[in-house]
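Mods, move this if it's the wrong board.
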Amino acid sequence: MVDRQARRRRRSLVVEAQGGSVTWLGPQNYDNLGVDAAELIRQAIDQGADAIVGPDWVPEAMDPAFEAVVEAGIPLVIYNAGGIEGADRLGAMNYVGAVDYKAGVAGGAYLGSNGGKNGVCINSLPGAANIEDYCNGFVEGIESTGGTGSVLPLPATAQGNVTAVAQAGKEGAVSLCGINFDEAILTNINDGKQACAIDQQDYQQGYYAVSILNGYVNYGLSIPTREIVTGPGIVDASNIESTMSGASQGTR
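Not the wrong board. Structure tokens:
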């Protein structure tokens, strides 16, 4: 599998081919997500960025920083979280990404349609608007199939930990469907240890967002379709082989 750094590298090639550069700034952990992410946005302004791409994970903490981007006259694209509503509110050019509520609905409906009756959405990033939207959608999705749904908040230290089912001795009795995926999750799906993952196509999110701003800064191009939706999709046993092939090349 190609790691996230390699995928970011691939996304920046189109910019570098035209003499530009892409700098990726990310939080060290999720313990203080909104505040830390807002600081990174302000760092991008201070570094003299010609354009900025960012996810609006925690609007209350991050919106003032995004507003500072627009006030500085720097073109902005919101991606991954925030939706077209966030882009409109902040004065961004476009939103690129999935609609988290719909992604949650898709995940809940998938599990409910495949035998799940009692679904729990584990939220290890309480306060992150995109995850809360996802969990609300999940509850609606499984309830639409006749099941019941609830939300379980956990601390950020539980982020990405998919071992709980095995530790509880419930493998085979509990179906697990994750938000997005990494190498471990894809391997679990391939091995039959995990039912599915909700694919927001994060490679597409980064690629389209960076490409839009590159075209705007260099050539004055704009994309009139301001909301570019990259998901949700479902990765399960039916398409795991092609998904893993794409991941090995850094494009999933």
